């Protein structure tokens, strides 16, 4: 028996020199994604930034409000308040105007009381006119005749003890 020997066929000329009439295959680089921005993401980021700023501002205000700052004592150095009395004539005019108003108010009150009395008198007179007694006529009904067929019941007292 003879040992088998391998013998390869020679390569065709087309592979060593390239295929005639077929263009060279170009390899495309893999896709490189570009970063993109959504409007919603931008709005959320802006709102988050504003919220952080508002929180910081609120915290700052609370800290400032919590710290005690006393004002300087000015009251002990000032002169006490004294009202100025310059227009004595205006005070007189005011008092006179006040008296005239009080007099007018008293006159108006008297007129109001007088009108109330008059209204009350008119109301009483009207009530008296309306409440005059008027006799009611006697009503006439037809006469009822007793039925002759039925006897009238004779009353008797009950006899409980016998």
UniProtKB/TrEMBL annotation:
Residues covered by the TPX2 C-terminal domain: 93-148
Main location: cytoplasm
Keyword Flavoprotein: no
Compartments it resides in: Cytoplasm, Cytoskeleton
Keyword Cytoplasm: yes
Domain of life: Eukaryota
A biological process term (GO) from this entry: regulation of mitotic spindle organization
Cellular component annotations (GO), alphabetically ordered: microtubule; spindle
Alphabetized UniProt keyword annotations: Cytoplasm, Cytoskeleton
Record-stated family: Belongs to the TPX2 family.
Protein's UniProt name: Targeting protein for Xklp2-like
Organism listed in the record: Clupea harengus (Atlantic herring)
């Amino acid at each position: 028996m003879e040992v088998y020997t391998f013998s390869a066929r020679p390569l065709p000329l087309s592979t060593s020199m390239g295929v005639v009439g077929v263009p060279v295959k170009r390899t495309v680089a893999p896709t490189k994604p570009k970063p993109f921005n959504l409007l919603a993401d931008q709005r959320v980021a802006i709102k988050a930034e504003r919220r952080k700023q508002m929180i910081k501002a609120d915290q700052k205000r609370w800290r400032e409000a919590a710290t005690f700052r006393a004002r300087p004592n000015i009251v002990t150095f000032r002169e006490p308040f004294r009202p100025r009395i310059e227009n004595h004539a205006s005070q007189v005019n005011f008092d006179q105007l006040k008296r005239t108003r009080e007099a007018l108010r008293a006159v108006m009150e008297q007129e109001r009381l007088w009108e109330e009395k008059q209204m009350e008198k008119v109301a009483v007179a009207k009530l008296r006119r309306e409440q005059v007694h008027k006799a009611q006529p006697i009503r006439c009904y037809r006469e009822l005749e007793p039925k002759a067929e039925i006897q009238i019941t004779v009353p008797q007292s009950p006899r409980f003890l016998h």
